[in-house]
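so my prof wants the structure for this chain in the C-alpha cells format not the other one, which i didnt know existed until like an hour ago. anyway here's the sequence
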Amino acid sequence: MEFLNKNILIISTEAWGNNHITKHHYAKELAKLGNQVYFLNPASQKFKVANVLDNLTVIDYKPKFRGLNRMPSLLRNTLNKIELKSIYKLAGITKLDLVWSFDPFRFQNLKLFKAQKAIYYPADVHQIALEPQTADTADVVVSITPSILDRLAVNTPKKLIHHALGSSFAAATELFPLQEKQNKPIQCGYVGNLNSKYLDTAAMQQIIADNPAVEFHIMGPYKANDNNLGKGASNAELITFLEQQKHVKLYGSVAPTDLAKLIHQFDMFLLCYNADKFRQEVSNSHKFMEYLSTGKVTVANHMIAFESYQELLEMTDTQAELPYRFKSTLKELSKHNSLSLQQKRRTFSLSNTYTNQVKKIETFLA
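here's what i got, hopefully its the right format
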C-alpha cells in the first residue's frame, strides 16, 4: 500500500499536545504526504474534533461503555462497533484505508475498523493480556526493538524499524554544519519528561552534583499542566533539586521546531533511564535519534537496540557506571566529538527519518 491520498486513523496512547513522540510524528508525516489523518486521543470526558494541521484531525471522545477489556470477546466486539460508529460520525469518517494502532488497551480487534490494511506498532512495552489480539488482527507488526517483537507470539509478519528523526530535526542539520568547537563552560543537553517513571533520578542528581562546571540544559515537561504524555511518576524531589542548581536551566516543554534548532548549541547529551530496573522498557529512545542528528556524543544508560552500534554513543552496562562514564567522556570530549564520529552519528540519524521509515513500512505492508 502506498501512503498517498488515503484515509488513515491513528490510535494513540498519548494525547495530542505540545510534546511530540513517535505517534505524533508519524501522524504529521502521513498528513504531509497528502493523506487525511485522524488522530484518536485516549478516552476522555470530551467529545469533539479539531483540525490541528493541514490534513490532520484530532478526535476526542467520551466512551459509551466501561470495563470492555473484562468482557468476553464477542460482547466486547459488539460494543466496540457501537463505539466506533459514534466516533466515525463525529469525525465525518465514511471509510478508512488504513488503521494504525499504537494502543493495545482499546479496540484490540483491528478488523472491526474494516480498513484495507491494519498496522500494530508497539513503541513501548505494554502489560495487557489482550495485546496479542491487536497484533494478530493486524497485517503487520512494527516495533523499535527485537525484544518487543519477540514478546508477541503471533503469526503476523513483524518488522524491526528504528525510531525515526522528525522533519524539523532533519531540516536543522542543513543549518548547523558539524564543527569541533566547544562551549566554555561545556553545555550538556537533556530532553525528556522529568516525571517519567523510568528515569534514574538518583543517577541524574549525582551527575549534575558531581559536575558543577558543566551547564545542564534540560528540556521537557515537569509541571502537571505542561504534559500531554501521561501522568507517569511524580519525581518532585528531582525537580526541586534541579530548580535549586545554579548550573541547571529548566526549559519546560519546547515545541519540536524550536527544539530542533536549540539542541545544536550543546556539546554533549545525557540519557538517564534506569536500565537495571526497566531494561526492556528503555531498550530504545526516541530522543536519542534527535541527539544523534547534532553529531555530538551522548552518555547513555544501556539500550538493547544499540548494542550493535556502540561507536555512536558512550553506553554503560549498568546504572552504577553512568556517573563515571559521564566524567570520563567529559575529560576526552574532543576525542568523542571528532568530526569523523560526528559524521557517523548524523549519517545514522538521517538514514532513519520519518520519511524513510514510512517508505520502509509501505514496502513491508505491500
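also thought this was worth mentioning. The first helix runs from residue 22 to 32.
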